[in-house]
Structures are given as structure tokens and as C-alpha cells.
Amino acid sequence: MKKLFSKPVIGLILSILPLSGSMRAQTLEKMNWFNEPASWNIEDGRLTMFVTPKSDYWRISHYGFTVDDAPFYYAEYGGEFEAKVRISGDYKVRFDQAGMMIRIDHENYIKTGIEFVDGKYNLSTVVTHHTSDWSVIALDRPVESVWIKAVRRRDAIEIFYSFDDEHYVMMRNAWMEANRPVKVGMMGACPDGDGFSVTFSDFTVTHLPDAVRTDWLRTHAE
What we know:
Elements: H1 7-16, E1 32-34, E2 39-43, E3 46-50, E4 57-59, E5 66-68, E6 72-77, E7 80-89, E8 96-105, E9 108-117, E10 120-129, E11 131-138, E12 146-153, E13 156-162, E14 169-175, E15 182-189, E16 197-208, H2 211-219
Antiparallel strand pairs: 1-6, 2-3, 3-16, 4-5, 6-15, 7-12, 7-16, 8-9, 8-15, 9-10, 10-11, 12-13, 13-14
């Protein structure tokens, strides 16, 4: 059987693959709205929006209702990646929230960031596969901003938070179907209130070489 690649060529491919990590997300101006809010602005690489009042993302469980009407600004990506964004919000009332969303469709999505509950800031993650679940980490004080990072590998997404963009702590590991294009971007929701202002900055999506393909190339590097 004829070999597809020689060993030196395989080695060259593997040495080049990590360089693709330098590829960044498209500019904010080229992204798309789902449920565009009435007021928003892009300036100096920052997205500021006034979150639509009485809007949210949730499906069925615990509360018994389904909503899919909050603002979400996104670009679509296939394959594996690392996404990161900084979030600063003027949270006012119960359940005000802002963060990153990774979404296949209305039945399959993850939203994660800060959520204001009972007068406290919480690191919040909602994972939805037909029905939603909710996990929180209560903070002992308000924070000016938080960085959220999500790493998609195979059929899982690892979610991390940081207060300085240097030291990241994992807050969730969630399943998401592999090899499906996803929408990645910034969302805000205001289920109870009359809206609030939130600013997103430093949004990047970095391509990661496909783990299964990379493993195959290494195994067959002869």
C-alpha cells in the first residue's frame, strides 16, 4: 500500500498545526445578532449593549417555561477552539446576567458568565440539552469584571473563569455534540428587570487543531 505522507512530511504537518492557534476571531463588526437589542454600540473592540428587558434563555426544567428571546451577538465556528471574553455589567435586579454563549440551536446551548442573584454576584453556567440545568459559584464581593474562557475539545467544553486574565479556574465541564458547527459569542439576559448595560471586550476565538486528527497523524507518522 502506498503511503500518503513520508515521515518528514508528517513531522512538518505536526510542527505547523499549533501555529493555527494564532488565528483570531473575525472583527466584531462582522458578527451577527440573534434577538438584536434596541440599543448597542461597537467601539475600540468593545461591544456595549442595553440588555432587552424581560428576556432570557431557558428550557422547561424546574420553572416550567421555555424562553429564547435574549440578545446574542455571535459568529459561527466549526471544529475545536478556545474562546475568551471579558465582561463588565451594571447588574441591577435578580437574574440579571451576561456572559458567553455557545449554541447549536434552541435545544442545545451553554451560557456562562456573571449572574446577579439575591444581591450577590455569581459565576453562573446553564447547560441545555432539551432541558436546562443551572450551576452557580457565589462570590463574596462584587467584581468589576470577569474573564470567561471556554475550550472545546471533541465532545466536551471546559469552562473557566478569571479575574485577571492570567489565573484561570475551571468551573464546569459540559457535554456538547462533537463535529457540529456552533455559534459563539456574547449574550445578556434580564428576566425580571427593565434592562441594564453590559460591555464585552477582548473577545477572541482561537482555532485548535482537531484532537482526533492530530492523534491519528502522530500514530501514523512513519
